[in-house]
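Support reply, case 0932

Customer input (verbatim):
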Amino acid sequence: MKKLVPALLAAVFTAVSLATATYAADIESEYTDTASGFRFSTFSILSEHRGITDAAVRYTDPKRKQKSPALQSKPALDPAGQISEVYDHSVYSNAGTSMTSSTSSPRENDIFLVSTARGNSHTLTEPKRITASLQISGVYNSGIVKLVRLAVVGNASGEFSYAWPHSKVYTAPETVPFHRDYYGAVQYDTSSTQVRQTDIYKQYYKSIYVREVQYDRGIVETVSSKAPKPIEYSIDF
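Our regenerated output:
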């Protein structure tokens, strides 16, 4: 029997929703798709998201970046009037990231892993890897995009990659009709990230630098994103 290809999988099977799943633990649970009648013999979440809770990103808004012609002496003004503040940069920080929906999306990037005959085991020997990217809803500047990537998946690129260990052993119990086929795929969790903005100004007296001044702008954006996670499932034939 020919192995199912990703295109066929996408057409035949719909999403699996396991709202009570925890990231750290594998889930071994039989699941029957109500639309197609196909049965997933096992279903496992392979790794968890590792976002950075205190992520912060420096960003300089080119539209607000000022030159400093006003830093010249103003003899007609009192000392207080000769104090100037010049925008330097902003800092975006993670004010809170939470999951709003777990395993809510259809599977993507399905790949075949191994086929194990009834009553036997099979050790994965060929390299298997799956990749995906964080998907951000909306258009934002590069500073906010970078912050959300750090806050949700823990890296600035938003890229995700998972490699199956070569030594992993797959089994098929005597109860399967002929063989159990294992597959890997990607599903997405929907997250929400609150972005706090702090503006940094340089303060001068005439042309003499005095200090750095910070202005907290509060929560300026709430960004929704879909974070990929690797899953593994099997089908009995």
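We compared this against your earlier run and they match. Two observations from our side: The longest strand covers residues 208-236. Residues 1-28 have pLDDT under 50 and may be disordered. Please reopen the case if you see a mismatch on your end.
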